[in-house]
């Protein structure tokens, strides 16, 4: 699906008044890969009270079931490579249909690659969180920070100038978590270097994590008693 929709984003000024900004937003998400993953999810067995990792390719590439093979509850991977906040919002009803025990949500970087205004991403996050609360009120919700990227390694033009957008997005995600009374997990200290970039130790392409990085990720979740 390739479609563009027009948003009127209202931003409250720090001094007074409300200013309206008009932005053309790329809200597309349902490409062939998204559709194939959704078809795959639909054919999987129904599992109640699972722990779900939800997000884009950074989530999808993790072997969560193996990383948490000794965990006492089922663990499901609901990552879709290339997904963004619009795509996750569109499929959240399916994600929580079977009343998961917990949802670990991570998104954001693909929104940044499109240069979506943070207000749009946060609005989508808020709607995702509220849909989970409405459809599955006993589900524990964890918002995980967007990870930095390393523009010294990335090769695609759409990654240029994007890493500087990540800290502000994460500040707004942290504030959203407080407002919605859910848990915010800051993963950035695990994987960033002194310059705030995704450390070369943990990436090959400047965007995605190497497999062993996920061991560190899961250790943090266990240490914090989120798992």
Shape: globular
Instruction: Provide the residue-averaged pLDDT.
Output: 90
CATH domain topology:
Rossmann fold
Our count of domains comes out at 1
Proportion in helices = 25-40%
Q: Determine the N-to-C terminus distance.
A: 36 Å
Tally of helical segments:
9
Radius of gyration: 17 Å
Strand content: 15-25%
Low-confidence stretches: 1-22
Q: How many strands, what sense, and barrel or not for the largest sheet? A: 5 strands, parallel
The helix/strand class is alpha/beta
CATH class: Alpha Beta
Biggest sheet: strand arrangement: 4-3-5-6-7
CATH architecture classification name: 3-Layer(aba) Sandwich
Order of helices and strands: EEHEHHEHEHHEHEHH
- Tell me the name of the CATH homologous superfamily: SGNH hydrolase
Protein name: GDSL family lipase
GO molecular function: phosphatidylcholine lysophospholipase activity
Pfam families: Lipase_GDSL_2
InterPro entries: Ester_Hydrolysis_Enzymes (IPR051532), SGNH_hydro (IPR013830), SGNH_hydro_sf (IPR036514)
């Amino acid at each position: 699906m390739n479609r563009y929709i027009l948003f009127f984003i209202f931003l409250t000024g720090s001094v007074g008044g409300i200013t309206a900004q008009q932005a053309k937003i790329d809200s597309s998400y349902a490409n062939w890969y998204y559709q194939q993953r959704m078809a795959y999810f639909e054919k999987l067995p129904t599992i109640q009270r699972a722990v779900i990792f939800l997000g884009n390719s950074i989530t999808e590439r993790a072997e969560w079931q193996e990383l948490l093979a000794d965990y006492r509850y089922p663990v499901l991977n609901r990552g879709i490579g290339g997904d963004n906040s619009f795509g996750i919002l569109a499929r959240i009803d399916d994600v929580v249909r079977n009343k998961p025990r917990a949802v670990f949500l991570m998104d954001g970087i693909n929104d940044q690659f499109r240069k979506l205004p943070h207000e749009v991403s946060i609005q989508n996050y808020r709607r995702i969180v509220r849909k989970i609360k409405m459809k599955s009120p006993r589900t524990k919700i964890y918002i995980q920070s967007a990870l930095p990227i390393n523009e010294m390694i990335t090769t695609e033009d759409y990654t240029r100038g994007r890493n500087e957008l990540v800290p502000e997005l994460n500040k707004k995600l942290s504030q959203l978590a407080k407002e919605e009374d859910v848990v915010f997990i800051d993963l950035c200290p695990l994987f960033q270097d002194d310059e705030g970039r995704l450390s070369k130790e943990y990436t090959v392409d400047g965007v995605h994590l190497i497999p062993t990085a996920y061991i560190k990720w899961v250790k943090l979740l266990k240490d914090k008693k989120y798992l």
